[in-house]
Structures are given as structure tokens and as C-alpha cells.
Specification:
InterPro entries: ASHA1/2-like_C, START-like_dom_sf
CATH architecture: 2-Layer Sandwich
Strand content: 35-45%
Protein name: SRPBCC domain-containing protein
CATH superfamily: START domain
Helix content: 10-25%
Number of strands: 8
Family: Belongs to the AHA1 family.
CATH class: Alpha Beta
Structural class: alpha+beta
Number of domains: 1
Radius of gyration: 15 Å
Pfam families: AHSA1
Length: 162
Amino acid sequence: MPVTDVHHDTDARTLTITADFAAPAERVWEVYADPRQLERVWGPPTYPATFVDHELAPGGRMNYFMTSPEGAKYYGYWTITEVDGPRGFTFDDGFARDETFAPNTDLPVSVNVYTFTETDGGTQATYVSTFATAEALQQVLAMGVVEGASSAINQIDDLLAS
């Protein structure tokens, strides 16, 4: 499995996931740059994602929904703040109320920095999410973000191999 470390720091309000992939950074970058590839790995395996909008550029917006096994849809969005492909990108990640992708202000927004660093054997990906408060971090931890994100990231290996 690619995920090698998961760490949350309540004082720093961060969740950090580290993963190692046997592919160059450019190939890992392509997973995020191509909405059809990203759909195959964003969200847990039983909650496939559909990206309705995908603009991986500063100021861009990426709107998506995940569909549960029962057919319920869960909406989210990314607002892209920085792009340094293929080394990484930064974005605000929020929950949306419905298919309009209006922010759900009852749930936290996180600032995310995804970094892809070449290693001798491939690429180390570091995913850092920072929350406004320790309570916001605790809220998403209670919602199962570690398990969901880890299972989503672990799907990337199969995609890279195909």
C-alpha cells in the first residue's frame, strides 16, 4: 500500500498523509491533472467520484460529488490557490450543500498542500491539510477522514500500473 504514514497534530491543526509511489512525479501529477483519472481515485473505493468542473489553475474551481453504494450523493469543491506542476498544488477543500456546489458552512474548510517529490524509486507524495481550529480537525477525524483518504490514496497504485 502506498500510504506509509498518517499523522495529525491538534496543536498545529494539521493532518499529514505520506505515500510512496513507484512512478515518476510527472505521472503522479497526471492523476490530479486529468479529471477522468482523478475520478478513479478520489474518495474511498465504494464512493466513486464524479468531477463536474476541473480547472487545475490558480483561481480555478473543481466541483465534484461522491456517490454512496446506496446512491446518495455527497458534494465537495476545491478552490485552487497555487499550482507548481508536476511538483504539487495548493487548494482550499470544502464540503458543498448540494449540486449547486454552494459551500456548506456547517462543515470545515481545509487548506491543502499536495507535494510530489522524486525519490530514487519513484515519488513521495505528501498531503497536508490544515484546519482553522483544532475542533474542525477533530470534526473531520470523527467523520473518518483518515480511513477515507488512506483508502482513496491507496487506489492510486493500480491506476499508475494501468
